[in-house]
């Protein structure tokens, strides 16, 4: 049974981009879109860009043909932010905390961060391949997102796998987006490679959910009852030093495998264990 965990209030964090937005809507991020802003873009004749408010006096006076010039600037633009969410049965693990609650806290914090930054936020949620994804396009309708997140928190995930994530990924729009891939990443290599390929045009941030109780290396000696979260199959193990050592090595091997696979796609994972840590998230993006 999970330890009683107080509800964690959402907290915003500062995500950043390493590329310029092409989204037409004004916002917070550096972009390639011309418009009202303070970042100098180019200089053009007034006849080509008829906006006398931006008259470039020095360039106009220096022109030997007497032409008038105006300054052009880049606007700051919004970006679509999406959460692509694993809703397979392993996301219902309970240990130090409820992994479902941890997922909810992160998604609520992400939604708050997007709205405070001025970006539209959307959700793509799916488990098995046969399930129809739950999809909300990027929107500024906070109430719609809050209702969907509350439903996701209250409904236990039961899908036997997360193969439907590829179907959900295909619903994200054509505009380049910032996509947070939220999962425990107990996924086959074939599925994960295919999913990252589907999302190649977007900026993907893998959020790896972890519960410290999943670490068998921390368990004491004695009988331990184990249950496979995806299949529901249960077994009893006699925990001893040798088994703890093998479990610790298996956990290290899986983490190294996951990091190699993700960095091979130029994606750096963020490991979120037990609670949302705003400071760690800010440092992740600052780096």
Account of the protein in words:
By secondary structure, the chain is of the alpha/beta class. It has two domains: 52 residues, no CATH class; 206 residues, Rossmann fold (3-Layer(aba) Sandwich), CATH 3.40.50.410. 30% of the residues lie in helices and 27% in strands. The strands form three sheets. It has a six-stranded mixed sheet. Strands 1-2 form a two-stranded antiparallel ribbon. A hairpin with a 7-residue loop joins β4 and β5. α2 packs antiparallel against α3. The longest helix is centred in the C-terminal third of the chain and has 24 residues. The radius of gyration is 24 Å and the shape is elongated. The N terminus is likely disordered. This is DUF58 domain-containing protein.
What is the topology?
Elements: E1 26-45, H1 57-62, E2 69-77, E3 81-86, H2 99-117, E4 121-126, E5 134-139, H3 142-154, H4 165-169, E6 178-183, H5 189-198, E7 203-210, E8 222-227, E9 234-239, H6 241-264, E10 270-273, H7 278-286
Helix pairs in contact: 2-3
Pfam family, one: DUF58
Domain DUF58: 67-256
Protein name: DUF58 domain-containing protein
Backbone structural class: alpha/beta
What ranges have pLDDT less than 50 throughout 5 or more consecutive residues?
1-6
Specify the number of helices: 7
Distance between the termini: 37 Å
The total beta strand count reads 10
Shape: elongated
Q: Largest beta sheet, briefly?
A: 6 strands, mixed
Computed over alpha carbons, the radius of gyration is 24 Å
Range of helix content? 25-40%
Task: Specify the CATH architecture of the largest domain.
Answer: 3-Layer(aba) Sandwich
CATH fold name of the largest domain, please?
Answer: Rossmann fold
Count up the domains.
2
